[in-house]
Amino acid sequence: TLPAFAQQTASERADLARYQKYAEAPVDNVQYFQIQGFQYLGPHTVAVWFGVNKLYLLTVQTPCINLGFANAIGLTSKNNTLYKNFDAVTFDHQRCKILKITPVNELKMKQDRAKEKQAGAPASSG
User: Fold this and answer.
1) Where are the beta strands (DSSP E) in 1-126?
2) Which DSSP category does 28 fall into?
3) Reported pTM
4) For residue range 35-67, what is the model confidence (pLDDT) as tens digits?
5) E strand or H helix that includes residue 116
6) Contact status, residue 74 vs residue 60, Cβ threshold 8 Å
7) Residues 6+ apart with CB under 8 A from 41
8) 98-124 confidence digits (pLDDT tens)
9) What is d(CA 81, CA 75) in angstroms, rounded to the nearest whole number?
């Protein structure tokens, strides 16, 4: 098998680095209603959105074969609460145990990105 780094595309590495920049302290559990979206970031990391500005990085136990090719994922949970070291990311008849749940301050990330775009915009003449 290839090292984890070799199993990531440059864009996956860039997205993971950007999310990690805004990562908060890992939590033991998180409540959610439904998955709004997900993004594969590497063989042991997936980003999951549970709503607007509710982004979490889930670190899963490897091997988690073909997670990068999953069209959809599910999560095991009890009463809509996801627990590290207990629940799993599910896809294509696989279960990958969740080892870490890391909230990402997506609002701050979006605000900073908007500021960067504004700062980089050419001054209008008028």
Assistant:
1) 29-31, 37-42, 45-49, 55-60, 74-75, 81-83, 88-91, 94-104
2) S
3) 0.86
4) 999 999 999 999 999 988 899 999 999 888 899
5) helix 106-120
6) no
7) 8, 12, 15, 16, 19, 47, 57
8) 999 999 999 999 999 999 888 876 655
9) 10
